[in-house]
Structures
1.
Amino acid sequence: MIENGFLVSSNKENDENATFWRMYHDIKYRSVFEVCHLVVMPTYECDFKCTYCFEDFNSLEGAREGLVTPQLLLNWVEKLWHVYEFKALRIVFYGGEPLLRKELLKNYVKVMREWGTQKGVKFSFSIITNGALCSEEFIQDILEYGLEEMQVTIDGVKEVHDQRRPFRNGKGSFEVVYSNILRVANLAINKLVIRTNIDEHNRSRFRELVQLLKRDGLFLKKNVVFMPALVDPSPSKPVWCNQFISKLFDK
Ligand code: SF4
């Protein structure tokens, strides 16, 4: 592999090696050149206790928050920008539940928006949320800072969703999440993604959810994207996904 040039020395002094490393670096970071994508978690906490959540909240207890202040985020972005001179910056806020830290999130986007305007960098952001705290007032408030997209998960009709995605106190979350979805869909947001995690436990009632979204006109809205996601927690049972898909297209 050395003879054929597949493996090269990490010594960059030699011209040929230096060229190789420059090419490697360019390819690795090419996506950064035009648009810089960042993911920020304002908190590890969540107000839900979904049956399939992969977050280990016990191990996160005591995890330090608040380390990434808006100023620190700005410093990082600025350093990256000096190297890559990207034209656009996109941040995804994720958690835990990012809307548990609304003020912090608002400060992040305010600071980044101002910086973007100064530097001529187009700033936009999206939020992945469980949907319980996305009040109309808050969403209206942050739209002006570049909110482009929100993703909210609804796993079925009331009975199904409440069983899978309850609040931490055990109360069902369907009513509040669904009414927020209906409200946000009417705002001037570019994209509202309604995600549904489908697995063996809720697949038989998927059609009822589709009927509900249809009844409430959500499929007719240009800014709404329905994103059913087949998830199978057991890698040993991938077969049902295929069976499910073929049944969906049966009728
Ligand atoms: S909303 Fe997300 S982070 Fe919170 S419990 Fe559910 S899956 Fe986990």
2.
Amino acid sequence: MSFFKTIEKRRSSRSFSKKAVEKSKISKILKAAWMSPSSMGTQNYQVYEVVSASKKEKLVKATHDQGYVDAPLVLVFCTDPKRIKDMGARGKNLFAVQDATIAAAYAQLAATAQGLSSVWIGHFKEKAVAQTLKTKLRPVAILAIGYSTEKPGPKEFQKMKDLFKKV
Ligand SMILES: Cc1cc2nc3c(=O)[nH]c(=O)nc-3n(C[C@H](O)[C@H](O)[C@H](O)COP(=O)(O)O)c2cc1C
């Protein structure tokens, strides 16, 4: 799939079939995240692939009962600022979040490019997600990925002229 086709094709799905995501596709998703840009190349994130059914169930609760978090492939992107040096609070508080977020965005597009659907989950109780993963790291995004059983509806956009300005 071409780059711009992938961008256009990516839409949120909130209903997935039980079909497992092929290992080769998961590898490409993780590789895309791994190759994403990061602060000084230090990759200040940790990605958890949630394989345990009971953990997925806990994540559904931690995401305010968003049932589709129980998807065939669930990835949780956490900040891990331990490799950031000499960047002060901006590094720890902002760059690490950006690193994890960019990695998640690359992963989501890599899923789309391989015919998968996904939804980005940001509405969750951080503590409950971290407890489920048994980590002290800060979770910033969850991707629920699989084969969609629904068609995306029309999408509304802000006007481009309101979002992009020449100065
Ligand atoms: C930071 C962020 C947080 C989001 N949180 C949620 C969420 O908790 N639950 C959900 O169903 N969708 C969530 N979404 C998905 C958005 O609702 C969706 O991307 C948006 O409505 C645009 O639709 P599209 O993805 O089909 O283009 C989130 C997206 C982003 C980028």
